[in-house]
Amino acid sequence: MSKHLTKRAEDYSKWYNELIVKADLAENSAVRGCMVIKPYGFAIWEKMQAELDRMFKETGHQNAYFPLFVPKSLFEAEEKNAEGFAKECAVVTHYRLQSDPDNEGKLRVDPAAKLEEELVVRPTSEAIIWNTYKGWIQSYRDLPLLINQWANVVRWEMRTRLFLRTAEFLWQEGHTAHATKNEALAEAKQMQEVYATFAENFMAMPVIKGAKSESERFAGADDTLTIEALMQDGKALQAGTSHFLGQNFAKAFDVKYASKEGKQEYVWATSWGVSTRLIGGLIMTHSDDAGLVLPPKLAPIQVVIVPIYKGDDQLQAIADRVDTIVKELRANGVSVKFDDRDTMRPGAKFAEYEMKGVPVRIAIGKRDLENGTAEIARRDTFEKQTVNQDDITTTVFKLLEEIQENLFTRALDYRNAHITEVNSFEEFKDVIENKGGFVSAHWDGTIETEDKIKELTKATIRCIPNDSKKEEGICVLTGSKSERRVLFAKAY
Amino acid sequence: MSKHLTKRAEDYSKWYNELIVKADLAENSAVRGCMVIKPYGFAIWEKMQAELDRMFKETGHQNAYFPLFVPKSLFEAEEKNAEGFAKECAVVTHYRLQSDPDNEGKLRVDPAAKLEEELVVRPTSEAIIWNTYKGWIQSYRDLPLLINQWANVVRWEMRTRLFLRTAEFLWQEGHTAHATKNEALAEAKQMQEVYATFAENFMAMPVIKGAKSESERFAGADDTLTIEALMQDGKALQAGTSHFLGQNFAKAFDVKYASKEGKQEYVWATSWGVSTRLIGGLIMTHSDDAGLVLPPKLAPIQVVIVPIYKGDDQLQAIADRVDTIVKELRANGVSVKFDDRDTMRPGAKFAEYEMKGVPVRIAIGKRDLENGTAEIARRDTFEKQTVNQDDITTTVFKLLEEIQENLFTRALDYRNAHITEVNSFEEFKDVIENKGGFVSAHWDGTIETEDKIKELTKATIRCIPNDSKKEEGICVLTGSKSERRVLFAKAY
């Protein structure tokens, strides 16, 4: 494979796909639409998981595990949910293969091993979980029920892209049950906040919090809250959603509780999830023409040390010195790699770690040994400085913080520069086509208008921002009255 | 559900099933053979995962993620592996449901959405992984490749039991590739050691390390190493296996590497796994007629504090005192729960935590407040002591260590008392039928004898122990010559 990475300005989509492969994050597999997440990509996901898991537990949630399969009769119990996912679900129909005498003994499905009831591979787990909750919830004392699951799900998408849209993906799905509508609404809101905090503080990816329009809601939800990020090519990415499910699943699965007053009431529900799609968002928020750029808080390797040497003696001398540096950094919680491979030149190593987005690179050569110095380079700005070896830990600490902050600020500036208020459909089209980003526009609130705008511009309503103010105006397409602006964008 | 737990002596199998439900570990789901792992059970699995994951990483492995589905043509590439799993695999044949006009619009498989090639839900991932490794391995520099995956797998077993044998289960599967046979053998051995260390040091479950006989090997392996534990009812449990796969998968998927000398060589492989089955082993190693008994190192809650009070004032006074105790224990890394529920009496709480296997229980009442004391009870022996409140942390620390050790010793004594050397088939049958446990016997090394013994006694060869000595003898069934004893037992 060529070492050259297509430039973003040339072909953003090609750049994205190449970067993922060259940075060793993931690759397509032999299964249509399914990816292999390679160790380096998976290490990023593990860091995300660890942080999110901590945040979920801090907010009172516990992990559990529910079956991969959903019997068809349960799958279709909540009508809207079933309708939304039936078109793209993998279905298990048989439980055995046998050798086929008509085809050289190759394996075929054994017709005698047909399931009585087909099993849907979960595209999301509301159905199987609410069917289980029925047995867990009797009284108000059993509520709230606050559960999360880390799992794989399958949605048979026709057009897939690594991380952004894959037939199988990894995610977490929270499923909670509450005694009152307000509690459920507060939970949905809380998890939107948790996602936003995670996106901004760890991924350094600014997000807009808002609610989806009716047609963009999760199938089966009464309200879908979202965090929307902006990618470098001006397209939006839905990065996480938190749904208020009302009593839809409680009614579909007959889940009632006895209130303190002894009345039987339907339970209120939420569900919320983020997935490996976040890694796609991370890539398209920060990376550049040299490769991946990672925020230090999610970087599997935060610092790489590359020795510049001739001959084994020099390498040994450098290695001895590096040993102390590595120990000190590790003792301070920094993840460090010392790359002493003798099969590759320093320049090639530099390029490799730039491609892999390692935030800080330290190079130590013969002269550095003599002078007690090291060269430290940061990935985000390519700036270099020569520091005293005794100051390495302090400098690295400072740099990791600065890089984390710089990535966020840079992305925020870009995002803020790409929210454009428009007041006519001409402007709307112009911004969507030429500038990209979010367009803040008045909309008459009808699905028809939303559909028409999508048809004409490919832009969809990303959200009605939480902080949108009431403002009298007229719909950018129809001229009908409107009371607030919403955000449109082309989206992944 | 009745609070009464069936006694082990009455019906061990019933006791096991009841305990799992009453201790809130897991339950059967609406999907045949698949279980729901409840939060308390899942918390034990998380503790196991964390420890194992640490051990895998310490031995140089990285995590990755491979697709859930295996296309049929890949599945059948390694013949023996395919043969071994074809009989019990879930098969996806369609990717869409549609509403059925002949059945009130209920969903049915859409005949137009039939997959060109069926997808097997992974029962194990050698096939999909080795097909991927083909692209990752070119030269000796790419080796060893040391990868692990945490995943769900599906084996359509006809007779299932919670944790021990479920159609879907959670596990980890390591898949490694090596340049030489010896390296692969050493890896398989190393992982057997890791599993044994984990079982003994964390689960407090003594295991015998050995190799499987040919007929008990993993389908596609040249050698299967195992750790075998003994349950309280005298039946053995295969708790983890590590396979030397030879070049079988390398040949099936044509995975070669260029050696230093530039020759193309097939790669050598291992795979190894443990699963949620371990939780079944944990239960049947330590638990008693009062419920679950957990080793402190894997207990989600290590200490529970129960207040004994009348009225809110007393509760408040106790809670204030407990607050300090809880903080001190937590600061020392002990997981503590203060159960101040006012809906349950102390006696009922005691029973609940006994059922859930919490290692240490602290009770504090009015008199304790006056005297500055607390009552501490240990779950494994039910022993109680009254200690000064200032000594709680020290006492808890000591107790947690003692309990961990006592559980191991108790299980080891039981296990050692249940390895019986026999020299005739009469003795063999007698021990298997009446005493249980492992029978150490001479075997002529043939599959026929192994099968015959299984047919006559239901006992199988659990392993040829790593530490078995060469010893001249005659096969317990056929009288043919034998050079070493092997261990037989009835097994789960």
Question: What are the SSEs and their pairings?
Answer:
Two copies of one chain form a homodimer.
Chain A: H1 12-22, E1 26-28, E2 35-37, H2 39-58, E3 62-63, E4 69-71, H3 72-75, H4 79-86, E5 91-94, E6 97-99, E7 107-109, E8 114-121, H5 126-136, E9 145-154, E10 168-178, H6 181-201, E11 208-211, E12 223-230, E13 236-246, H7 248-252, E14 256-258, E15 264-266, E16 268-275, H8 277-286, E17 303-308, H9 311-331, E18 336-338, H10 346-355, E19 360-365, H11 366-371, E20 373-378, E21 384-388, H12 392-416, E22 419-421, H13 425-435, E23 438-442, H14 447-457, E24 460-465, E25 473-474, E26 481-482, E27 485-489
Helix pairs in contact in A: 2-6
3D architecture notes:
The structure is a homodimer of 492-residue chains. With 492 residues, the first copy, chain A, is α+β, with helices and mostly antiparallel strands. Chain A has 3 domains: 12-69 and 124-286, BirA Bifunctional Protein, domain 2, CATH 3.30.930.10; 303-399, Rossmann fold (3-Layer(aba) Sandwich); 419-489, C-terminal domain of ProRS (Translation Initiation Factor IF3, 2-Layer Sandwich), CATH 3.30.110. Helix content of chain A is 35%, strand content 28%. Chain A contains 14 helices and 27 strands. Chain A has an 11-stranded mixed sheet, with helices on both faces. In chain A, helix 2 (39-58) crosses helix 6 (181-201). The longest helix of chain A is centred in the C-terminal third of the chain and has 25 residues, at 392-416. The radius of gyration of chain A is 26 Å and the shape is globular. The model of chain A has no long low-confidence stretch (mean pLDDT 97). Chains A and B meet through strand 2, helix 2, strand 3, strand 4 and helix 3 of A and strand 2, helix 2, strand 3, strand 4 and helix 3 of B. Strand 5 of chain A pairs antiparallel with strand 5 (91-94) of chain B. Chains A, B: Its EC number is 6.1.1.15. Chains A, B: Keywords: Aminoacyl-tRNA synthetase, ATP-binding, Cytoplasm, Ligase, Nucleotide-binding, Protein biosynthesis.
